[in-house]
Amino acid sequence: MTDYGHELQFGTFLTPSNADPQVPVQLARLTERAGLDLATFQDHPYQPAFLDTWTLLTWVAAATERITVSGNVLNLPLRPPAVLARSAASLDLLSGGRFAMGLGAGGFWDPIVAMGGPRRSPGESVEALEEALRIMRGIWDADERAPLRVPGDHYRVAGAKRGPAPAHDIPVWLGAYKPRMLRLIGREADGWLPSLPYLKDGDLPRGNAVIDEAATGAGRDPAEIRRLLNLGGTVQATSSGFLQGPVEQWVEELTRLALEDGIGTFILSGDDPRLIETFGGEIAPAVREAVAGARRAGGTTPASARRGAKALAARRDGIDYGSLPTELAERAVEPGDREYESVRHNYLRAGAPGIVLRPRDAGEIVSALDWSRGQQVPFAVRSAGHGISGRSTNDGGIVLDLGALRTVEVVDEATRRVRIGAGATWGEVAETLAPRRWAITSGDYGGVGVGGLGTTGGIGFLGRLQGLTIDRVVAAEVVTASGLVLRTSAEENPDLFWALRGAGGNMGVVTWLEIEAGEVGDVVFSQMMLDATDTAGLLEKWGAAVEEAPRGLTSFMILAPARRDQGPVAQLMTMYAAEGADADPDAAIAALETLADAGPLLGHQAQLLPYSAVVSRQSRHHSGGGSPASRSGLLTHLDQDAGRAVERLVASGASYFTQLRATGGAAHDVDPGATAYAHRHQNFVVAGMSSTQQRINEVWDAEIAPVQDGSYLSFDTDTRPERLLEAFPEPTLSRLREIKADHDPTNMFRSNFPIPPAELLAA
C-alpha cells in the first residue's frame, strides 16, 4: 500500500470540441460550480474538430474564478518550450496562479509531422522533454540575472532573457507510461498523469516504484511528486464493473486508489454534465472524508510536510522543524523547497528566512504563534511584503506570511463597510470595489498589503479627501501574542483598537480590517514634469498650492537630482477626486494649473479614469534587492527653511530617491489622541532612500531633522531609539507601552520598531 499523503484534488478532462465552441467553456464553468478543483483539456493541434487548446485555456481562465486550468497533456513537439513557458507564466499571472503544466512528449507522429513538427523516436522524445523542462524552468526563474543558455540537441536557447516569473510555482505534470519517462518524472517533474484505460493491472504500483526510486536517487522525497489519474465511468443503480455502479461504489474504489496506489488527483473524463455534478457534489466530498479518516487513524504524514534530502540539508539552526503542527507544515516553505525563491524576499530587501509559515485562518495563526514562541530565531509578520523598512523578512528566522487571508467582502452596503483580509493588496481591494464606485485611500501602489498600511497610517492619493487609511478603519480582528483572538472596535477592546491604528505591528497579528469605503467616481490623475533647478522655490510654491487647493486634490512629488544630460527635475503625481461623483474636469484643471505654476513645466498629461486604474492590481512576486536604507519626516509646511533643507538633501547625493507626499485635509479633522498616529497638523511627509544607513543618517540629521515635525515609520529604516518618540509623541508612547504590556508583555512583536512594554522598560 502506498499513500503519499497528498491533499486530494478532483477535476474534469473535457473535449475541446469546436462544434459548439461554448460547450467546453460551459462545462468548465460547471466544473467550478460543482466544487471541483481543476478543468483540463486534450491537446491535439492537428485535430480540426477541436478548438486550439491554449486559446481555450486562456478563455476558460478568464471565465472562471477559482479552478486551475491545464492541458491534458500539451503537445510539446508542436509547442516550442521557450514560448510555451512565457505563455504559461503570462496565463498564471493573469489568472492569479491558476495554471498547471500538463505536458506530453508526443505520440501521434504522422499528424505531428504533417503539421510541421519533428518525428522522434521514444528515446529522442524523452531527451527533448528533459531539455524542454530545463528551458521552461529557466524562463520562469526571473530571479536569475544571467541569460538562459541550454545547448540541447532538440531544443536550445542561447542567451534568452528570463521571465516573467509566474504568480506561483507552476507544477509540471507529465503524461508517461514507459520506465525512461517515469524515471524523468522522479528526477525532474511534479506529477505523473496517466490515463486509466491505458494502464494494465499492476501498472500503477510498478510506475510508482520506478518514480520513487528515481526521486530518492535525486535527493527528493517521492511525496514531492503528485500522482494524478484520468478515469471514467458511469453512475448507475447496480454495479457492472470498475467505476460502473452507484455513488457508494465510486467512493469505495477511489478511496482505495488514494490509499493503496497514492493517487492524489482524480480527473473525470467525459462531457456529461450530470456526471460532473455528481462527481463534484457527492463523490468528491465523500472520498475526501473517507481518506481523511483513514489517514487520521494511520497517522499519515501529509505530503506537503515531507522533505527530501536536499531540503533537509538546507534547514537552519535554531528551528525545531519536526515540532511544527501538521496544519502549518502542509503549507510551510523551507529553504530547500522550490517555492522558496518566491517567498523569501520582500519588495526591496533580500531575505533568507529559515521557514515561511502560511496560515489560512485565525486558528492557524494561533498555532503559528504558539510554535514560534518556542524557537530561538527572529520572527516577522508579512502582509504583502511591500514595506520599505524591509522587516517582513529576515535571515534564518520565521516569517508569518498572511497572503492566504485576502478576501474582500462587503458586510454593509448602507455604510459601505468592507471586511478585508490582512493579506490582500490594495490593488485587489480597488479592483473589487470599482464596480460599486467605491474607493479607500491606500498609498500610491496596488502591490502594498492591507495589513501593513492599514495599521500604520496610510498616506494615499485620496488622503486629503478621505484622511489616512486608518481613519476609515472601524473594526479589526487581531491574534495576540498569547493566542487570544480578539475583535476590536470603538466598543470592543477599545484600547487595543486605538493602538492598532498607528502601531498595529507591535500589538499582534491582524487578520482582517473592516473599513468604510468612500463613494468615489472616476478621478483625474495627472502627471507633470517640472524643472527643479530652483528646488527650494519650487517646493515652497508647490506646498502652498497644495495647502490652498480643494480637499479633492492630493499631490505627491519625486525629486531627481541633476544628471549629466539634464538638470534637476520634479515629477508630480496628482489625483483630483470628488466624494460621491465623478471628478469635475474643469475644477481639476483649475487646481492643476496652480500646481503647474510652481516651476517651469516640462511636460504634462492627465486622464479621467477609475481609481482602480491608478492603484491597480500588481504581482505579488518580490525579488528583493539588498538592504534598504531610508529616512522619513513630517513637515508642517514647506516654508523657505524646509524647502532649502530638502534642496540640500537632494544636492548632497545621499538620497537617490526623494519623495514628498501631501497629507492633510481630512486627516486634520481627527483629534491627535483618537489614534496611535498622533500627527494631525502636519501637511507633508518627506522620505529619502540611500545606499547606506550611515550616509543618509548623516545628511538627514544635519539638514532635515532641524525642520521636521514628527516621523512616519513606514518609510524609515533607522532603528535608533529616538525614532519612536518622533513617531509616537507623548502621551501616545506611554499609553502604547501600557497596552503593549497587556497584550504582548514578552515583546514577541519586536521586529518592526518595537515599543518596549512598560514592565520591561522599568526593568
Structural write-up:
It is a single chain. The protein is of the alpha/beta class and 763 residues long. It folds into three domains: 9-303, Alpha-Beta Barrel (TIM Barrel), CATH 3.20.20.30; 312-521, Uridine Diphospho-n-acetylenolpyruvylglucosamine Reductase, domain 3; 523-727, Vanillyl-alcohol Oxidase, Chain A, domain 3. The protein is built from 25 helices and 30 strands. An eight-stranded parallel barrel has the order 1-2-3-5-8-9-10-13, surrounded by five helices. Strand 9 (191-192), helix 7 (203-217) and strand 10 (226-231) form a beta-alpha-beta unit. Helix 1 (22-33) packs parallel to helix 9. The longest helix has 26 residues, at 273-298. The radius of gyration is 29 Å and the shape is globular. Its cofactor is FAD. Keywords: FAD, Flavoprotein, Oxidoreductase.
